[in-house]
Amino acid sequence: MATDLYPTMVVATATMVAGILGIKTRISSSIFEVGAGILIANLLGIGIAPWLDFLGTFGGLILTFLAGAEVDLILLRKQARQSIIIGTMAFISPLIGIIFVLTAFTDWSLNARIAGALALTTTSVAVVYAVLSEYELIKTPAARNIIAVTFVNDILTLIGINFVQTSFDFFTVLFVLTLVALTPVIPKLIRRVVSSFGKKAVEVELRLVLAILLGISFFADKARLHSVFGAFVLGLVFSNSIQENHEILSKTKTVTFALLAPAFFIKAGMLIYVPAVAINYLLVLLLLVTKLTSKFAGVYILCRKWIPEAPVFSTMLFSTGLTVGTIVATLGQQLGYLSSGQFSVVVSAVIMSAVVPTLIAKRFIPGKQ
């Protein structure tokens, strides 16, 4: 059967336009990609084709992998005490607040409430990096603290989604032990492949990374852990090696942000049912306000103690959410925890949390108040 090129053309054009708008507005192109997905599905009536479904799923896995690979373990160790305390509170406070709100104002199931709350606990690594880089703060002590806390927050979120409905067995234990055993092996394998096959047109090292990623994700699913958890842990295992080999990281990001990430966000947008958002717009706003206020209540005092030069600025950055939040919400829908309408409400709140706290944070840039 011949492939229908019309939806392919529409999606390709949308990714290009979203990228241009992201550059022009200095807003993450992911937001425009989700918006494009909403328009494609709800206005043009285009469904999710099998190729987009695959690329979107792959995109979610590799974004999760990169979130783990970006973790600076040395930085995390140096900032361990404050980053763990602030990051834990940045995770727990919105989790409790949002579960309370969903319990009080909705009839969602317990699993739906937990999955929705987990999606809204995150801090967006992408947004944090973008804001810190834009205002040339990335090398300051405050920035190092903020980045370390962001890592802790997202690690806890990705661990948390695995415990929404636990069903661990012998294969789970075997998978974890195998992953531990592979921890010292994988970096050596990467170095050997780079030294033997690096800088070749066939990009063997990049193929190796993608093959291991898909393999670990597959076995994580079989071990009754979620594939995104396997991808994130693998990213952590790779973090030091992949950061030593900047070319691999650069090539992986090129493939991801040119093709796979846009597919993931457009697919997520196409899953959003606009009538459900329109009917529940007050709930969307309530979830956003709850995330912002609970994060503020949970971490502001701690930020005043450990990031005194930028307490409000850092608190607002910890309130942002986008990539990991969308990944967790998508996983919640795939596992049957969130209905189409619930997913639409949660992702809409996640997207708004990428914009609103960022705008507030820009009024409290350290040294520029």
Commentary on this structure:
By secondary structure, this protein is mainly alpha-helical. It has a single domain, classed as Na+/H+ antiporter like fold. It is 78% helix and 0% strand. It is built from 18 helices and no strands. It has helices spanning 5-25, 29-42, 50-69, 73-78, 80-105, 110-119, 125-134, 141-160, 170-182, 185-197, 204-222, 227-244, 246-270, 274-279, 281-306, 311-318, 323-334, 340-361. The longest helix has 26 residues, at 80-105. It is globular.
Short synopsis of the structure:
With 369 residues, this protein is mainly alpha-helical.
Features:
globular; 369 residues; 18 helices; mainly alpha; Na+/H+ antiporter like fold
Question: How is the secondary structure organized here?
Answer:
Layout: H1 5-25, H2 29-42, H3 50-69, H4 73-78, H5 80-105, H6 110-119, H7 125-134, H8 141-160, H9 170-182, H10 185-197, H11 204-222, H12 227-244, H13 246-270, H14 274-279, H15 281-306, H16 311-318, H17 323-334, H18 340-361
Helix pairs in contact: 1-2, 2-13, 3-11, 3-12, 3-13, 5-6, 5-8, 5-15, 6-17, 6-18, 7-8, 10-11, 10-12, 11-12, 15-16, 15-18, 16-18, 17-18
Characterize the biggest β-sheet: none
Beta fraction of the residues? under 5%
Q: Work out the radius of gyration.
A: 20 Å
Q: Which fold does the CATH topology refer to?
A: Na+/H+ antiporter like fold
State the CATH class: Mainly Alpha
Oligomer: single chain
Into how many domains do the coordinates divide? 1
The CATH architecture would be Up-down Bundle
Nearest-integer average pLDDT = 87
Q: So what's the overall shape?
A: globular
Q: State the order of secondary-structure elements, H for helix, E for strand.
A: HHHHHHHHHHHHHHHHHH
* Total number of helices: 18
Helix content: over 70%
